[in-house]
Amino acid sequence: MSVTLDIKLKRANKVYHEGETVAGVITLSCKEAMQHHGISLSMEGIVNLQLSSKSVGVFEAFYNSVKPIQLISHNIEVAKAGKIPGGKTEIPFEFPLNAKGNKVLYETYHGVFVNIQYSLRCDLKRSLLAKDLSRNCEFIVHCQPQKAKVVPAPVNFTITPDTLQNIRERSLLPKFLIRGHLDATSCVISQPLTGEVVVEKSEVPIKSIELQLVRVETCGCAEGYARDATEIQNIQIAEGDVCHGLPIPIYMVFPRLFTCPTLETTNFKVEFEINIVIILHDDHLITENFPLKLCRV
């Protein structure tokens, strides 16, 4: 006998803030009446920390700090053992979105080494012969907007062979001069990152100009920290040998779920950086790095 179990939230966008109520319905569809041994619903908020392979072994003492951090844990019995009639049954539910003890609800974030996730799980227990059913449904938590206004402070940059670091032989570098600015490095997460870049001169033709958004995740405890930078997205803003003296706009939207307001706690940190990458035709790679501070207003 086929039964379908589903969790539907009242909010289409599934976005909630601390202190609000997560409400929805559990829907059960079956052709004929069905016996069950109880229906339960649980809400969980977990921070999963993972070490990169290069860190494992170096920090053996670390493992105690890398166990998951539980932010929310609620469990309710939706229905006692009994019978569900044939057809479609809807059971409404409500959960208050409050942190466990003195914990703080961090914003939903899907990273590589840090994952902050909130979910609802419904379990329907059945007799020994029939398989138990379960259904998961993720919802998104946004942190409370900060009261203070973010005042954009433009950041100007100039890239020449002399400003570059990590170079073996500076004398072999072609001559170039690239200027530009970012409108702000303290950014509102719901608004795009903007600015412009101008190639004033370059001896070698330019192949491509790219914007790279990087997440910097730090996991650890008093014994030591593992800091890993990984790419979130890469956008090409110019291709080929661009006109010299022409302003090229910088425009990048911060992707949902893969970015969150800059976060710093005792066990982990989530920070973001932007790289402006210029690739020359002789495959020289020029990178200018800017740390970003993301916030929600």
TrEMBL record:
Membrane-spanning regions, if any?
none
GO biological process per UniProt: intracellular protein transport; nervous system development
**Cell compartment(s), UniProt:** Endosome
Keyword annotations from UniProtKB, A to Z: Endosome
User: According to its UniProt record, what is one Pfam family this protein matches?
Assistant: Vps26
Q: Which GO terms describe its cellular component?
A: endosome
Instruction: Kindly indicate whether the keyword Ribonucleoprotein belongs to this entry.
Output: no
Superkingdom of source: Eukaryota
First-listed, main subcellular location of the protein, grouped into a coarse class: other
InterPro entries documented for this protein: Arrestin-like_C (IPR014752), Ig_E-set (IPR014756), Vps26-related (IPR028934)
Q: What does it do? A: Component of the commander complex that is essential for endosomal recycling of transmembrane cargos; the commander complex is composed of the CCC subcomplex and the retriever subcomplex. Component of the retriever complex, which is a heterotrimeric complex related to retromer cargo-selective complex (CSC) and essential for retromer-independent retrieval and recycling of numerous cargos such as integrin alpha-5/beta-1 (ITGA5:ITGB1). The recruitment of the retriever complex to the endosomal membrane involves CCC and WASH complexes.
The UniProt similarity line reads:
Belongs to the VPS26 family.
Relate the assembly described in the record.
Component of the commander complex that is essential for endosomal recycling of transmembrane cargos; the commander complex is composed of the CCC subcomplex and the retriever subcomplex. Component of the heterotrimeric retriever complex consisting of VPS26C, VPS29 and VPS35L; within the complex interacts with VPS35L. Interacts with SNX17 (via C-terminus); the interaction is direct and associates SNX17 with the retriever complex. Interacts with SNX31; the interaction is direct.
Q: What name goes with this protein?
A: Vacuolar protein sorting-associated protein 26C
Task: Tell me what organism the protein belongs to.
Answer: Fundulus heteroclitus
